[in-house]
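pasting for ref
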Amino acid sequence: MIGGPRRGAPGACGALQGEDPPVIVAASSNNQAVTNIIDAFEKDFDRGVGPFAGRWLPEVESFGMFLASNSRRLEAARRYQTEEFQVERETVAYVERAKKAYLQAAAAAFPEFDNPGVGSVVAALQKRMAGEVDKLA
């Protein structure tokens, strides 16, 4: 959304209200246009400094997923998050590892929490986001 999120804008407040995020779909007659979009999300939206910068989940490097044709799946998997990547993230082992990493990142971001749980971290993140949105109003 150009100009940043606004209260009441469709899809812009999903995270603030505990809703699912909007899904953006890019399709093209050639792969280059799609991979350019995925590359832009990876490059421009995951860097920074401080406890709120970067990803809190291990092995997740992008906001995008590339659903390549069967003939290009192996090639795509070397560089992009693919359907197979998502299937691997849905295992019990990964979820346990991801939860541990998420809570470690949360402990760094919210040192006032003695023993944070996922629910309390989500609530704290929503509160912090709402404060940042209010600053923009």
